[in-house]
Every structure is written in structure tokens, then in C-alpha cells.
Design brief:
The complex is a heterodimer. Chain A has a domain of about 70 residues. Chain A is about 35% helix and about 20% strand. Chain A contains nine helices and nine strands. The chains are: A alpha/beta, B mainly alpha. At the A-B interface, strand 5 and helix 2 of A face helix 8, helix 9 and helix 11 of B. Chain A: Belongs to the ABC transporter superfamily.
Chain lengths: ~260, ~270
Amino acid sequence: MSCDVELHNVRVSYDAFCALEGIDLCIQHGEALGIVGPNGSGKSTLLKTIAGLLRPERGTICVFGTEPRRLPRGTIAYVPQVEAVDWGFPATVSDVVAMGRFSHLPWWRRFGATDRALVEEAIDAVGMTPMAGRHIAELSGGQQQRAFIARALAQQPRLLLLDEPTTGVDAATEEALRLVVRGVVGRGTPVLMTTHDLERVDEWFDRLMVLDRRTLALGTPDEVAASGAYSAIREHTHTHGHLRVDHDPHEGHEAHPEVRV
Amino acid sequence: MIHALLAPFAYAFMQRALVAACIVGILCSMMGTYVVLRKLAFIGDGLAHASFAGIVIAYLRNIDYQLGAAVVAVLTALGIGFVHRKGKVSLDTSIGVLFTAAFALGIFLMSRQTRYTLDLQSFLFGDILSVTRGDLIFIVAVSAAVFIAAMLAFRDMLFASFDPVVAEAAGLPVKWLDYGLLVALALTIVVSLQSVGIVLVAALLVTPAAAAYQLAKRFTPMLLLSAAFGVTSTVGGLYASYFLGSSSGATIVLVATLLFFIAVALKRLRPA
């Protein structure tokens, strides 16, 4: 079967520091992939590379059969982990979500009724309708996160990339997000989502990737659990808090043999 | 009474000055919205000083000084963008390096002239009353071009100003929007030089938009409010300078500053 997103032997570096190495991946239509791993394991780097924000030093990336940067406008929606925006920017929740439509609107097209309807629908999907007219600075962290997810939904992307959307949100929001993700996947849009620590991964994702600069495991949540790679990562994260899992590249490979489907 | 109030505009030079003041007031303050939101206040000063080199070169080569100023300001703007991206230095640093270089080049070229008749005063402080018919055509043409480009790129520019990373991931040409904004700002500044001068043009780019930022909750109202503050400053300043016998450029900037502090006060008074 052909892949919507295909990575082959991808290596990404920041100057001298190698963030990702030897990544092979195939994401199929309507598939939700969870990417887990400790801080500094390259999860965000992987999403940014697929989004076309970073160029791989080696290897190839194909999104819908082409390089990410050559895709038509609006193909990819990316929700970063930390929004580095100016919270004093004069914009309400509706204004921010409306930006999701901009990539589909060339200068000669008006922001029409369809666009407005999609914006309202996206705001509703994340449960932000009562806050639609609020200025973005008046929102809590979780509400801001939901507004940015709504912007991604309004874009109606063919690929959705979410970087740790569950960090710092309450249980109810987390469940709402899960339903949003499953809804998007159900319409055939592949979703790649990183997560630091999440219970019930099997209810979120079709497949799971355990990442620590290299792929430690890749398979269904059950297969990954059986491999021991995920629990080893969780052990480390829990024991050492923010620390990354340090291991010898070769030793690591043997300790967590890759599971592939 | 009415007659006395309209008296200044009986003169042709005042009529031209009024038209220039309206255009410059609106253009600067609307482009200033991006300057304030992207925290680029330094750029106005930078590009204005850089254009000085163009004025000197134009003088030495005996070509139109506005053309010289425009070419050097646009090249400096592109250089600033290039050094920022390729040299991996902050935009602020890039502006600091390049505008002083261009300004120094202007001084260098001028200092080698034993005799010069270039009226520096009018470039440094502006002389809106000396706007000729030809100047006005230049101002209208360039302003129209910048205005149309800004309207066409409106949504993309808004998205890229608010959240460049996500905009780039969504496929917007963020790099070209950045360069385009720098070029548009260079042209805006050149068009405004004659009205307010090299030293003060930055105020027209920053102050009305900063005042609007105090009061507006959404982008389009901020843009319109900024334009209103801008045109009130330029026209009000021009008018006041006629009666006070003061420098028009300085009076315009002082009116803008007054409006800014009124906006700050209004924001504090307004119930949250």
C-alpha cells in the first residue's frame, strides 16, 4: 500500500548535534501515529521536518508523493508544542481560528460564508464556542492550546501534526482532544502526534513510535508494549524527570529490539 | 471664522502639502501596524538613515534624489533581510549593522566633496511645504503601489506576522512576505522623507500604530485606528505648524506623540 507520509533513512542535525538518525516511516491514509519518547528525543524535530520547517541532512521525505515544501498551500496543519506568539497581538479566538482558512484563500477570493461556517465548526469541535469573541490573552493555557487546534481543524489539512497537545490540559480537555483526533482520522486524514506521557495510548493511536533520536520501536500499541521499549522509556522519564534516556547507540538497539508491522 | 481657518489652504504649496500629509499619514501608520506588531520599531530609523546615502549619490550623479533614496533604501532592506536569514543574527542586529554602514557611506561620499550645495537641513528634518507637483506624483504613485501590494498580501501578511512558524508549515511564503514587508517599508519611508525628514520619519511609522495598539482588540480596527491617528497627526501637525510658525515635521511628530499619550490614558481609564 502506498504511504501518505514516507520517510527513508532520515537524519536531521542542528549544526553539530544530530537530533534524528536513520528514521524510516510510512504513514497510511487515515492512520493516527503516536510518537513517544523522553524530552530531547527528537519528537518535535521529527514533526518539524515532516512539516517542511527543517531540512533533513540525509534521507528523503515524501508527503503525498512530494517534498513537504513543494506541497500546495494548506496541505499540512502543524500545532507546535509551545506557541511563540505575541499574546498581546490584537486577535480574538475567532480571528486566530480564521487564519486556518487563509492558506486556502488566494488574494482574489473573499473570506466567505463557507469559511465562516468552518471556523465556527472548528471552534465548536474543541468546545470553545463560548470563548469565541475573547481576546487570546484572556485565555488559560489549555484554552489557548484548544484555539490553536481549532485553527488547524479549520484549515482542513490533508495531514495534521500535533506536538504535545495534551501537555498541561485537564482530563476533560484531554478527552475532548482525543475525540477530535479520532474524528479527523475517521475522515481519512493521517495524524502524527507527539506525547510525553499519556495513559491509554491504544485509545488514541493506531500505531506507536518510540523515539530516542532513532526509532526504538514501531508497531501497534500492543506490539510496542510487548517489546518493552515504551515502558523502559517511561521508567527513565519517571525516574529522571526531564532527563533524556542516555544509552550507547548499539546497546540501545539490542535492549529494545525494533518491532515492525 | 471659517475663512480664517481655511486661509492656509488658499496657497498652492499648502494644498500640495495637505495632499502629501494625508497620503503619508495613512500609508506610514498602516504599514506601522506591522512594524509595531513585529517589534521592528528600529527599522524606520534604520532605513531612513540608509536612504541618506542614496540622496548623496543621487546628488553627486545629478539624478533625482528620490530615486536614489528609493534604490538605496530598498537594497538596504533586502540586505537586512538577507543578513538576518543567512548570518543567523537577529533582525535588530542586522538593521544596526547595515543602516549605519549605508549612512556612513553617505557621509563618506559627501565629505570628499569640497563644495556642495546639498541642502541637508531639508532632508534631515523634512520640508513638506516644498513638495512640488513632481514630488506629489512620485508620492502618489509609490504609495499606491505599496498600498495595493499590502491589500493583496493582507491575509498572508497577517498570518505570517502573528505566527510565522505555523504559517510556513501551512505553505505560506513566509520568507518572501518578510522580504516584501521590508521593501514596502523602505518605499514608505522614502515617500515620507520630504514630509518629516530622516530623523523623524520613524515616529510616523511607530507612534500612531502604538497608539492604536493601546485601544484595539482586533487587527482590522487597529489598522483603521492607526490610519486615523496617522492622518490626524500629519494634517493636524501641518495645520498647527502654519499658525505656530514651527517646523512642520516636528509639529507632526509632536501631535502624534500627544495622541499616543491620550490613547494610553484612555486605555487606563476604560473599564476592563
